[in-house]
Amino acid sequence: MFSSQQKRKMPRKMVVIFGASNVLWMVFTVSQAFKMEIFPEHRVIAQIGDVISLTCRTTGCEPPSFSWRTQIDSPLNGKVKNEGNNSTLTMDPVSFNNEHAYVCTATCGSKKLEKGIQVEIYSFPKDPEIHLSSPLELGKPVTVTCMVPDVYPFDRLEVNLMKDNKLLKNKEFLEPMERKSLETKSLAVTFIPTNEDIGKALVCQAKLNIDEFDFEPKERETTKKLQVYISPKNTVISVSPSTKLQEGGSVTMTCSSEGLPAPQIFWSKKLDNGNVQLLSGNATLTLIAMRIEDSGIYVCEGVNQVGKDGKEVELIVQEKPFIVEISPGPQVIAQIGDSVVLTCGVTGCESPSFSWRTQIDSPLSGQVKTEGSKSMLTLSPVSFENEHSYLCTVTCGRKKLEKRISVDLYSFPRDPEIEMSGLLVSGNPVTVSCEVPNVYPSDRLEIELFKGESVIESKTFLEDMDRKSLETKSLDMTFIPTTEDTGKVLVCLAQLRVGEMEFEPKQRQSTQMLHVNVAPRDTTILVSPSSILEEGSSVNMTCSSNGLPAPKILWSRQLNNGDLQPLSENSTLTLTSTKMDDSGIYVCEGINQAGISRKEVELIIQGRENNKDYFSPELLVLYCASSLIIPAIGMIIYFARRANMKGSYSLVEAQKSKV
Fold first, then answer.
1. Which of 48, 201, 383, 506 has the greatest number of C-beta atoms within 10 Å?
2. What is the pLDDT of residues 81-98, one digit of tens each?
3. How much is the pTM?
């Protein structure tokens, strides 16, 4: 609204308008009755811990004033927010202190309105919990408890416990509530599990029967699948090969037990002090390299969640004689440059001592490492000085045993190498060399050379070896290749025959595919239409040559000094509008990597004969020129003669006189 001072400053017409509007507004205000509403209406229910808002709204008053209170004048336990015609009371979180009837008062001038709303609370926050007094064992009673936590009001709670669709027990909690509080209520049932219960489910249903309010959920449910157990029984042990063993031997014991779920197997051994030593959690227990102290009573137990069942077996380990073994065996063959480990092992002796030597008392040329019942002699890299017989001596107390192993050497490191003395040309002799590098012992080497599947040469090297050394040996052979050899394979096979000893490889081979070349031949030239031509004609000269691979064609012209001028690499050489200068000797060469074949042809270009029927532009030009030149020459001769008569000649004077 405008003040009186503002009105005085306005034009009169505007003052009249505003005055009229004020009257209309007052009439409208009086016509609007002062009313009040509250939301939600009458009653509302909220879960403890949630948030709830109550809203008071008025119409017909600008602006009203609001106030909130409980009907019993207890604290509001909420926050009030006023905005224009609305006032909101928010309770966050809802607790027992908010379970009241709330009154909202709105005042507009001398008028006052009140509205009330009842706030009810409940708590039903979680699904029920199913607890078992013990694992479900077949034939043994078990108590099932269904617990519903933090319920309010519990006197409205109903709990049903079912096994699948069959009701076991129902309970309502109608006892009076001494105070407002969250309560955990439960229902318990005892039953005896049977085989029929396997796979069934326990279902606990909880209902909060507050029918006068709508809220979710009013029902909660929990399901627990029944797992029925059977205590282990019928435990059985099998032993292989026997319960009586020799020292150093091995035994495998397997245990089985019945139950549900399938029992886990545990192996243990009874100690002399009466305690038990756990050995394994597997059904099979394997003991290797057994000793005297491994004798005793072994226990197998089948264990699951509801029980255990045990079985015992006694093992007796008898003393075994002292034994020495050397590996890889009595004889080992090694390639020069490799590493060889000779191992001397002992069984039947607690604290052995070892020594190594060569049979001829030469230096060992290796490193010895002893670990418990084993001693290793490492020769790395193996060389000619290691080709001996080695002895391992083992002392155990007063006993002494000795084992022998011989080390033989060889060298056969690479595949053979095939080389040709030159290009393979049909009809030309060629020497094939098959070379085997760094062989030892070379007197055990045999080389065979195959062409296709046929042996064409072989060689052995049986000459005495003056000294130990790496030798490169070869087989050489000369043969004359033919075109039939193309596509065949040369195979060089080298074999090193070193007794019966096992080593890899005992043979090596290399292959080479034969590609036989044929030098160019039967070179021919075809001239069309002829080698003798009239000037201005065209000629095609076509060259062909046989060979393998197919020869490349090269056309040249022989110069006066005997050199060749290259012209074309096409099989056909074409000359158009030939001239006299094109006459000469033309050379065709068939060329491949095996050779050259040459053929010549002489081309003769003749001048064209006179022909009355022949007419050409050149002749027309010549004719026209001559028709002008002849009269001019006549005139020159005429004036010359006149000049001679007068004693001089002047073309100018001659022209003047003519004029």
1. 48
2. 999 999 999 999 999 999
3. 0.43
